[in-house]
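#help-structures

NK: newbie question. if I give both the sequence and a SMILES, will the prediction place the ligand too? trying with adenosine-5'-triphosphate
OV: yes, paste both and it writes out the complex. here, I ran yours:
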Amino acid sequence: MPNPPARTPDASPAAVDVRGLVKHYGSVEALRGVDVRVEQGEMFALLGPNGAGKTTLFSILATLRTPTSGSALVLGRDVVAERDAIRREMGIVFQEPAIEQRLSGRDNLFLMGLLYGLTIAGARKRASEVLEQLGISDLADRRAQQLSGGQRRKLELARALVADPRILFLDEATLGLDVDARRTFWGQVRSLADAGRTVFFTTHYMEEADVADRIALIDFGVIVALGTPRELKARLGGGIVSLTTDDNLRARAWLSEHGFEPEPGGQEIMLLHADPAAVLPELLRNLPVRVERAEVHVPSLADVFLKLTGRGLEGGSKP
Ligand SMILES: Nc1ncnc2c1ncn2[C@@H]1O[C@H](COP(=O)(O)OP(=O)(O)OP(=O)(O)O)[C@@H](O)[C@H]1O
Ligand SMILES: [Mg+2]
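OV: that's the protein plus ligand as structure tokens.
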């Protein structure tokens, strides 16, 4: 295990404390005044579409980029002024591979241990421990390039854990993996959080964000909503009726005339309602069009995002 840091900052600072954070790349305003506080031990998701500013915020917290203005503290330390001191406390999983493809899993972790100043024996021991902890000891002696996408991502996670960091930062860590591999990956990260580690991750998959304790929705460089998954969904109240008809234009017009407020745009008609199950039969009876499909569901994070921004999560962020 690495040595503890030379000095301990104040007793129990927030894991992440970001205030008025602004980042410009030339004329691009990637972050336009972000405030976020993440407590120690929390699993926190930053959810938003392409170009929203996720990687930018992640990179500033991971001390890889400097902000234009505003402040960012990680575990009470300034990401710019005290960069070296906090780097040792954080594990980072990038979207791009960081493991050495030609080395075995074990050697990747062993090297990482040496990089963090462990002795040869210490690094060996730590590599085995982490492999065991993530249940991938069976992959230890295979070259990274021979592993599946999901196995490689686990190895990336293992690499980030070698230094036994207090906080893990992950940027789109499961991009390109199938649903099953993503679920397993986040299950594992969730157990790390349950064991007391702080986790801060970015994603544009809403079902991934659902495993977090709290979620910040980011769009165009600002946080548009923040809360537990349940709180965010409750913001919409009630549920959602989706309808596909043979004449959506006419259906929308009728709905608006009768006091309903269909969400603008989309292939289907979406309707927020306090009691969707009760209103559906009435709609089916009275709509002057043929309803081809009708569905009632509880709001998802994607619905919340759509309601707040007028756009879906999966699409691009530019209007
Ligand atoms: N190095 C850079 N130079 C110029 N503009 C940049 C740079 N990096 C990011 N941007 C711009 O800043 C904005 C935010 O980018 P960022 O990479 O933070 O978004 P993101 O939310 O991570 O998107 P994605 O989901 O596609 O990874 C975008 O408009 C992007 O084009
Ligand atoms: Mg990104």
